[in-house]
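Tutorial handout. Part one gives the primary structure; part two gives the three-dimensional structure as tokens.
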Amino acid sequence: MTFLLITPSTFLIGIPNIIKTKLSFFNIYNLKMFKLFEPNKIFKITSRAPKYVLFLFIVVLTVGLTEALVLSPKDYKQSQVVRIMYVHVPAAWISLGIFSSLALLSIGSFVFKNKNFSLIAKSLAPSGFIFNIIALVTGSIWGKPTWGTWWAWDARITSMLILVLFYGMYILAWRIYENKEQATKITSMIAILGAINVPIIKFSVDWWNTLHQPASINILADTSIHISMLIPLGIMTAAFALFSLLIFLMKYNTELIKVKNKGLDRL
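Part two.
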């Protein structure tokens, strides 16, 4: 049996080769990414997509509203007021999902130095901001008949309010800083820091005594909400997701046109 003896000097000599290999991997990756993210290629796809997304959105929203307002039963405690849930809950889910995406895209922007990640995040933020506000407003409307007050400094409500402030800071930072590199760094930091608030929102009803009830829908456990309410909730969530996609495509196409007008052949 033979043994391979690695001395400290051999190990130290090998480190630069490992670093070069990793750097070459990232260079190859970035070259491939640049080819995929050429503005002309992306715009050919995204410029055609909105009309199809709009059609799907109208169809799904029509079905969802019919299910939510007509076919679904009223709650035995809240009666007809429970129908606010079909707007409030999907709006909250979408806003949380989009902000989580902003954080992931921001991390990707830092790691791979690809400007398209920050461009996608920038285009996603407005729809997330809109749905965050919708969630707060509908929650307030829902709270009046059920809790007897329009607003309470409940852990879930307060953390959602903090999220809308992070959305506001993120969008505002893009407008304030004219230097795109600086704007990308600052908005990425805002998104990554704001992502800490996402699990707080999710588990706030478990960690603190709140006015909000615990989660009724759980993927890993039994769902307490009845199927007759779960179906319209899912359809309305799909409709809101399509609306978010529509806003994203409109904003993203605008950003791509700006890139093309600057004469850049890649992002």
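Part three, for discussion. Confidence is low (pLDDT under 50) at residues 8-12, 18-23. The chain has nine helices and no strands.
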